[in-house]
């Protein structure tokens, strides 16, 4: 499944931990946005790892992207870095 994950975390230490978790599963696209291509088991593992790190004021939002949505993704401006990406 293709996911977009966005997060809003105020504490640098926790934000860095969440970034590193997401980096294991997908590609960084913008400051607080990742795209991932993972299966259901990996999603549960990722969510568990994130829940163990975030605090009460932190927010993480996960969007599942359908095939139609993925085909219609457009980049405007500078393209995101593609290194360390599992997203095709």
Structure description:
The chain has a domain at 2-61: Alpha-Beta Plaits (2-Layer Sandwich), CATH 3.30.70.240. It is 38% helix and 27% strand. It has helices at 12-25, 40-53, 67-71; strands at residues 2-8, 26-30, 33-37, 59-65. A four-stranded antiparallel β-sheet has the order 2-3-1-4. The radius of gyration is 13 Å and the shape is globular. GO terms for molecular function: endonuclease activity. Its EC number is 3.1.-.-.
What features would you highlight for this structure?
3 helices, four-stranded antiparallel beta sheet, 88 residues, single chain, CRISPR-associated endoribonuclease Cas2, 38% helix, globular, 4 strands, endonuclease activity, alpha+beta, Alpha-Beta Plaits
Summarize the structure.
Keywords: Antiviral defense, Endonuclease, Hydrolase, Magnesium, Metal-binding, Nuclease. With 88 residues, the chain is of the alpha+beta class.
Q: Report the sheet with the most strands, covering strand number, pairing sense and barrel closure.
A: 4 strands, antiparallel
Number of helices: 3
Unreliable spans are none
The count of β-strands is: 4
SSE order, one letter for each helix or strand: EHEEHEH
* Radius of gyration of CA atoms, rounded to a whole number: 13 Å
- The percent range for helix content is 25-40%
Alpha carbon gap, first and last residue: 12 Å
What is the CATH architecture descriptor of one domain? 2-Layer Sandwich
- Name the structural class: alpha+beta
Q: Quote the CATH topology of one domain.
A: Alpha-Beta Plaits
Q: Mean pLDDT, as a whole number?
A: 88
Approximate shape: globular
CATH level-1 class of one domain: Alpha Beta
Major beta sheet, strand line-up: 2-3-1-4
Strand content: 25-35%
EC number: 3.1.-.-
Keywords: Antiviral defense, Endonuclease, Hydrolase, Magnesium, Metal-binding, Nuclease
Enzyme class: hydrolase
Subunit structure: Homodimer, forms a heterotetramer with a Cas1 homodimer.
